Amino acid sequence: MNPTMVVVLILLLVLVGGAIYLFMNREPEPEPEPAPAPAPTPAPAPIVVAAPAPVSSQAMMQAQEELDAVNQELADMSVVRTHPFTGNKFLISKKTVPGVIVPKLAVGEPASTFDIVTTGVRTDDMMVEFKPIENEPDTYYLYSSPLERYIKYNSTGFGYRATTPTTIPYKIKFTSLNDEYVMSYTTTSGVEMFFGYDTVTGTMISSESVLDIANSGLVNVEDGDVAGSILPGNFGTEFFAYGTAEVENIQDCLTNIDEVDIEDKSELLSVAYKNPGETEDAPCRAYKNGDSYGYMPEAEGWVTSCIDNTKSVKQGCLL
User: Fold this and answer.
1) Distance, CA of 184 to CA of 187 (rounded, Å)
2) At the topology level of CATH, where does 228-315 sit?
3) Does the domain formed by 84-224 have CATH 2.80.10.50?
4) How many Å apart are CA 10 and CA 49, to the nearest integer?
5) Could you report the per-residue pLDDT of 191-234, keeping only the tens digit for each?
6) Fewer CB within a 10 Å sphere, N or C end of the chain?
């Protein structure tokens, strides 16, 4: 064998043996460290909800009462907007000489079912109660407490019934015409009929046209609580005279009480009125208590009223 080849083979064997030795004696590779375990998520703290404080039954009742009061106030406001004449009123005929229309049961021939009092007197038994009809604006049942009857238009005057009406002719509507009102009712066939006082016939008339009623059949309404009682007469011969020919009624005398020439107006108890066309003196008189102070119902042409409308003329306006 060629010596060169021998040398080459020996070197190959040395290299192979060295490689085997190194492979057999090499150090093992370290295993990778395990990934750290995730930190535990802390449990959320419990949310504590405070229990509502117990509401006492008294507080609940009070709250309900306040709510009821508000609801009632709203209801009253609604009534006032749609039915301005609720309660006891004087029904005033706006004919040439204004007077109170006073219902009465049929008397005489021909039968008359109403009076018109033009003396200026106002008493409780002349008033008519206006009872609002729900969901029908400006429409009322009219009730006379002295007669204990409900009122409707009937032929030449009024018709009456003692029990609560069940028919539509008893529903009386008041439609505004400037500062006055025209009354109307609806027939069973649905026709609106206007009615009022007719100066020519001295009776009530009705028509489908308001023009037939507007001449003398319009009305107005006076609040009984404001007007108080007005009775015939005056309170004697000691008085303070005031007022001019422009004064039309005793309400004007009350309105113009500041014209009275007296320093302490609180001393005045009553006023009296006489139509300026029936007296040469001032139409208004104011009275205070004194030796000659006393109610004189026989004083012709005069009507009188207490300045404090809660007082009684028959008690001298002292009570």
Assistant:
1) 10
2) Hepatocyte Growth Factor (3.50.4)
3) yes
4) 91
5) 999 999 998 999 999 999 999 999 889 999 988 765 558 899 99
6) N
